[in-house]
Specification:
The radius of gyration is 15 Å and the shape is globular. It contains five helices and seven strands; from the N terminus they run βαββαβαββαβα. The chain has one domain: Spore Coat Polysaccharide Biosynthesis Protein SpsA, Chain A. It has 177 residues and is α/β, with parallel strands linked by helices. Helix 1 links the parallel strand 1 and strand 2. It has a seven-stranded mixed β-sheet, with helices on both faces.
Length: 177
């Protein structure tokens, strides 16, 4: 199988990690998001199966990515569909808030996916933290409330569990748990 393109969506500064607003200032939330994004970029660069890493964001990255696709504000699912059409090939979509992500997590997901669509939930089995889409796979993104259930319900979807991919940061407890 040919290499994978990783696509990492992230919101604009000021709009990141808003669920942490009761605990962190906007500057602290942006710094946290930037740190986690840098970590994800570093892991993707070190992953042998990932041939390029692209950021999907309203602003271009400072560094760490091989390219950038401008988020035009159509909503995450529409933006991902548009980017998928632009990029083609094997596509790994993963979120930027994965502080425990390792190369092993990425390689495990992509190896288990093979020619099937594979998804990884958050550790609460509510959200979806990563999706591996082999070239030509029929799949419609369903990010939003309870996205894991929606993605898992799609025919032929394989569920992969990997600790570093399942630990995202949405609540203050996630920073210490």
């Amino acid at each position: 199988m040919t290499g994978w393109t990783a696509l990492v969506p992230i919101k604009a500064p000021g709009d990141r990690k808003t669920r942490l607003a009761p605990h962190l200032s906007p500057a602290e939330r942006d710094a946290l998001a930037d740190d986690m994004l840098a970590h994800v970029a570093e892991v993707l660069r070190a992953s042998p199966s990932v041939t390029r890493a692209i950021l999907l964001s309203p602003q271009p990255p400072e560094d760490g990515f091989d390219g950038w696709i401008a988020d035009e504000g159509r909503g995450l699912n529409a933006e991902l569909e548009a980017a998928r059409g632009q990029l083609g090939g094997n596509l790994l979509v993963l979120h930027a808030d994965l502080p425990r992500l390792t190369v092993h997590d990425i390689e495990t997901l992509l190896a288990e996916a093979g020619d099937a669509v594979a998804i990884v939930s958050d550790r609460h089995h509510v959200g979806t933290n990563a999706i591996a889409l082999p070239a030509g796979a029929i799949f419609t993104f369903a990010f939003g409330e309870n996205s894991f259930v929606a993605h898992r319900a799609k025919a032929g979807t394989l569920v992969v569990e990997s600790p570093g991919l399942m630990h995202d940061v949405d609540r203050i407890e996630d920073l210490v748990g």
